[in-house]
Amino acid sequence: MNLKEIKEIIALMNENNLGEIEIERDGLKLKLKKTALESQMQAPIHYAIESIPTPRVSGSSVLAAGESAKAEVVAKTTKDIKSPMVGTFYRSPSPEAGPFVEVGQTVEIGQVVCIVEAMKLMNEIKSEIRGKVVEVAVSNAEPVEFGQTLFAVEPL
């Protein structure tokens, strides 16, 4: 996460009168919090940025009874592209356009894979992994939560 992204998050906090926000991405946890005094003042606000390394969790998962062993192998060898925010997931740039990515397609680092709409803003979500898409975990126009898996990608 770079300084520009942090400034954008602070601007969103101010525009929406949020007192606290916590974001976790790529093993970095960012927590921004206004004190009660800062929330009441009109003067410039200083933010405390807390960076807490979080342990990386492997892609393995516990399968429910009845799921195939193939699904277990896929879960162990894939990396997830997760939603960096709460919003609405869109697979394509417009209703008439085709999806950004399909299952079986190779994605590159920095390639747009979907859009998450949050507060009327369309946020392009880019892949941080180079690999082959093996699963689209969310349906088009479905609400998503922060940290929810959007795609499973098999690294190349």
Principal-axes geometry comes out as globular
- The number of distinct structural domains comes to 2
Multimer state: single chain
Give the mean pLDDT: 78
Top CATH class of the largest domain: Mainly Beta
> What portion of the residues fall into strands of 2 or more residues?
35-45%
Strand tally, please? 11
- CATH architecture descriptor of the largest domain: Beta Barrel
In words, what does this structure look like?
The protein is of the alpha+beta class. The protein has two domains: about 5-55; about 70-155, OB fold (Dihydrolipoamide Acetyltransferase, E2P), CATH 2.40.50.100. About 15% of the residues lie in helices and about 35% in strands. The chain has helices at about 5-15, 35-40, 70-75, and strands at about 20-25, 30-35, 50-55, 80, 85-90, 105, 110-120, 120-125, 130-135, 140-145, 150-155. The longest helix is centred in the N-terminal third of the chain and has 13 residues, at about 5-15. It is globular. The relative contact order is 0.17.
